[in-house]
TrEMBL record:
A GO CC term attached to the entry: extracellular region
GO biological-process terms attached to the record: cell wall organization; polysaccharide catabolic process
Protein name as catalogued: Probable glucan endo-1,3-beta-glucosidase eglC
Top class in the EC scheme: hydrolase
Molecular function as annotated in GO: glucan endo-1,3-beta-D-glucosidase activity
Enzyme Commission designation: 3.2.1.39
Native organism: Glomerella acutata
Role, per record: Glucanases play a role in cell expansion during growth, in cell-cell fusion during mating, and in spore release during sporulation. This enzyme may be involved in beta-glucan degradation and also function biosynthetically as a transglycosylase.
Signal peptide as annotated in the record: 1-18
Length: 412
């Protein structure tokens, strides 16, 4: 009997636990490109953060291209191999076909140079980041980068699948990361159809068209997640960016502070960790300068002591909207309808703050919406995007061989 499980579902089922990590940029806030040693230091520090039980061992990447090069693989990849950090690979898709060709070339080189060393380390591959938001009327009105239309992203999906065919990455699930308002926009359905998984970015802090104080954060988050799940036809939803700033400007009723960042971590993060794939925004975004707002869980110096308590021991899993964060649940139609009305809300981290708080992936892997870069700059590189390493909620790695076995069993 032929199983009806999708490749992405098989991949998820074979993984012992959800991936858990942070977003990281390819440059520091002064524009200096990170070297392999820089990424290694960040990954090791993230995996040793006090109060986390070593859970943050995965990395989300915005680009395959090393800063300062045309199409060399990002140095976060060998750093991840040496530290056993799992990766959500990313290809920057908002700079046109020529730039994406460099992303593809860097992906080819990655497969050629590292081959089987990538086995068990790749959570998935993201084709682009918030390109649909940037291409939308809201993104254009907010002065975002050019973005990419759905047909362009679908073309890029096909190109990525061709590159990884018959390689150690051939079984990696491919998806796209965008703001939750992009996912509930019916004009983007072709991208949903092309995805094995859906990456959702959602920031209640930026939702100034609704009540968005920290006490409202959990509800805004639940609405965003439910709307996304209701729009994507049962495909797994991965949380690729969310967080609350520790310092910076007030947006609507949302006030950055250590206390509020901790509450959002408790209310939204803790109940998801270990159950849903999550890459939190962010590990460090203030080296050497601090952006406004700043989301980092550590300050300007690498340290295992976070700015606020990251432990979840005393947090009830029933206290958060993450009960609905399970990627196996679908949202109610009413929740989807309710949240889809927010498509017209501003989706930027500029003075007009957004309903999605969308981040772009500039050369520093930072936000194109004005949100601080993930340890990076906001400008888009001429050579390609940025990488954002995160961490995983599990120390158990996934082997491509295991996936192949699971697929074989499913076909019986």
């Amino acid at each position: 009997m032929r199983a009806s499980l999708s490749l992405a579902a098989l991949y998820a089922a074979a993984t012992a636990s959800a991936f858990q990590g942070f977003n990281y940029g390819s440059t520091f806030t002064d524009g200096k490109a990170k070297a392999q040693s820089d990424f290694e230091s960040e990954f090791k520090t993230a995996a040793s953060l006090e109060g986390t039980n070593g859970a943050f061992t995965s990395a989300r990447l915005y680009t395959m291209v090393q800063g300062g090069s045309t199409n060399d693989p990002i140095s976060a990849i060998p750093a991840a191999i040496s530290t056993k950090t799992t990766l959500l690979l990313g290809l920057w898709a908002s700079a046109g076909d020529a730039a994406f060709a460099n992303e593809l070339e860097a992906l080819k080189k990655t497969v050629s140079q590292y081959g089987s060393q990538l086995n068990g380390l790749v959570a998935g591959i993201s084709v682009g980041s918030e390109d649909l938001y940037r291409h939308s009327p809201t993104g254009i009105a907010n002065g975002e980068f050019s973005g990419a239309e759905p047909s362009t992203l679908v073309k890029y999906f096909e190109q990525v699948r061709e590159v990884i065919k018959n390689s150690p990455l051939s079984s990696a699930p491919i998806g796209h990361v965008d703001t939750w308002t992009a996912w509930v926009n019916g004009s983007n359905k072709a991208v949903i159809d092309a995805c094995d998984w859906i990456g959702m970015d959602a920031y209640p802090y930026f939702e100034d068209t609704k009540p968005n104080s920290i006490s409202d954060g959990k509800d805004r988050w639940a609405e965003a997640l439910a709307a996304t799940q209701g729009a994507v036809g049962g495909k797994p939803v991965w949380v690729t960016e969310t967080g609350w700033p520790v310092s910076g400007k007030t947006v609507g009723s949302a006030v950055p502070s250590l206390e509020n960042a901790k509450k959002f971590w408790n209310d939204v993060g803790c109940p998801m960790f270990g159950k849903t794939n999550v890459w939190w925004y962010t590990f460090q975004d203030s080296s050497p300068t601090t952006p406004n707002p700043s989301f980092g869980v550590i300050g300007s110096t690498l340290t295992t002591k976070p700015l606020y308590d990251l432990s979840c021991d005393n947090v009830s899993s029933s206290s958060s909207a993450s009960a609905s964060a399970s990627s196996t649940n679908t949202a109610s139609a009413s929740a989807s309808t309710q949240a889809s009305s927010a498509v017209s809300a501003s989706a930027t981290a500029t003075a007009t703050a957004t309903a999605t708080g969308g981040s772009g992936g500039g050369s520093g892997g930072g936000s194109s919406t004005g949100r601080p870069g993930t340890n990076g700059t906001v400008s888009v590189p001429t050579t390609g995007p940025t990488v954002v390493p995160g961490s995983s909620a599990t120390t158990t790695t996934f082997s491509v061989a295991v996936l192949a076995g699971a697929i074989a069993l499913a076909m019986l």
